[in-house]
Design a protein that fits this description.
By secondary structure, the chain is of the alpha/beta class. It folds into 2 domains: 12-73, no CATH class; 77-166, 3-Layer(aba) Sandwich (Oxidized Rhodanese, domain 1), CATH 3.40.250. It contains 8 helices and 5 strands; from the N terminus they run ααααβαββαβαβα. It has a 5-stranded parallel beta sheet. Helix 7 links the parallel strand 4 and strand 5. The model has no long low-confidence stretch (mean pLDDT 92).
């Protein structure tokens, strides 16, 4: 568990800075943020946001802590990723835009597009080993979280993205 405690007076900006997965968690679990009707400002306190959206603050804070733990488990550093790729069959998914692949790819990776996403969601076993990556690690974390949310159990995202993998 994270050693930083969320208190009701923290602004959303502070919460998101200290718990990067909180934006994902708030939207996925509580439909807070992500659209105009459920949005918030970074200056609002988490208590104000919870009251505005009729959510229990304790439940929301617990959801953020849980999301942070899931986030930590799905992240993998370069050394561990290379060991994993050498030891087992892993599906490698590049979530970057086609123009971004000019900066390099991980061997045997597949560029995510709609047909591949459809294939993953409809025919891949939920225990498929999957490594996602992007340029810096943010978009691939979103994708990994999406897969985990849809029942995939062995999904990792490359911390720092292709930039650190190539270094």
């Amino acid at each position: 568990m994270n050693t930083i405690e969320i208190n009701e007076n923290m602004t959303m900006g502070e919460v998101i800075e200290k718990f990067p997965s909180s934006q994902r968690a708030l939207f996925q679990k509580f439909h807070i943020g992500g659209c105009q009707s459920c949005g918030y400002s970074m200056e609002e306190s988490i208590d104000e946001v919870c009251k505005k959206h009729n959510k229990d603050i304790k439940e929301v804070i617990d959801g953020i802590y849980q999301s942070e733990e899931v986030d930590k488990k799905m992240r993998i550093n370069v050394a561990d990723a290379k060991n994993w790729l050498n030891a087992e069959h892993v599906e490698i998914i590049d979530v970057r835009e086609p123009y971004e692949v000019e900066s390099g790819i991980i061997e045997n990776s597949r560029l995510l597009d709609r047909p591949l996403l459809g294939e993953i969601m409809t025919s891949w076993p939920k225990n498929t080993k999957i490594l996602s990556y992007c340029q810096k690690g943010d978009r691939s974390a979103e994708f990994a979280s999406y897969l985990i949310g849809h029942g995939f159990s062995d999904v990792k995202t490359l911390e720092g993205g292709i930039e650190v993998f190539k270094a």
